[in-house]
Hints:
By secondary structure, the chain is of the alpha+beta class. The chain is built from five helices and eight strands; from the N terminus they run E-H-E-H-E-E-H-E-E-E-E-H-H. A hairpin with a 5-residue loop joins strand 3 (65-75) and strand 4.
Amino acid sequence: MKKIVFATGNQNKLKEIREIMQDFDVEIVSMKEAGFYADPEETGTSFEENSLIKARAVWELCHHIVLADDSGLEIDALNKEPGIYSARYLGRDTPYVEKNRILIERLSGVPDEQRTARFVCAAAAVLEDGTEYVVRETMEGRIAYEQAGENGFGYDPIFFLPEYGCTSAELTPEEKNRISHRGKALRALKEKLAGHLA
C-alpha cells in the first residue's frame, strides 16, 4: 500500500483528505506521524507558493508522496484580507470566535452585495521522484452578519452561501466536502494522481 503524507497538523483537514481519498488503496498519515515535527515557514506570497513550500519541506525528509494545502479567506471589501495570513490573522492563538467577531465588526454598514468573499485553497503534491503538481480552487460566498453553525472550523461560521441559505458551518461534512474550496482542490489533485496511484 502506498503511503501519502499530508503536510498538516490540523486533524480537521486530515479527516477531510481521508474522506476524499478513500477510494484509493493508500495510507494517509499526518506529517507528525511521518516524523516531521517542524512547521515549515510559509514565506510565499501566494497560496500556491505556500502549499509547495510545505510539501517540499516534508518531501525532503521522507520522499513519499506528500500533499499539502494552503487555504484562506479573501474578503473583497477588506482588500482580500485576511488572505494568505488567514491562520495568523490577529495572532495564531486568537480564537476564531474572536477573529470572526472582529471581521463582522469591520464590515459594519457594508451592504449585502459588497460583502462578497471566497475561500481559496491551493493544493500541492510532490511525488516520490520529485514531480510537482499544484491546483487552485475557490468557494464563493458572502460574509454573514453574525456567526452561525457548529460544523466546520475556522471562518466557516461567518461564510454565508446564498444558494444554500446558510453558512458553511451549517452544512453537513458531506455537503461541505462536495462544494468546498479544499474538497474541489483535493479532488482536482486526486485526478492528477490517479494514474500514479492506480
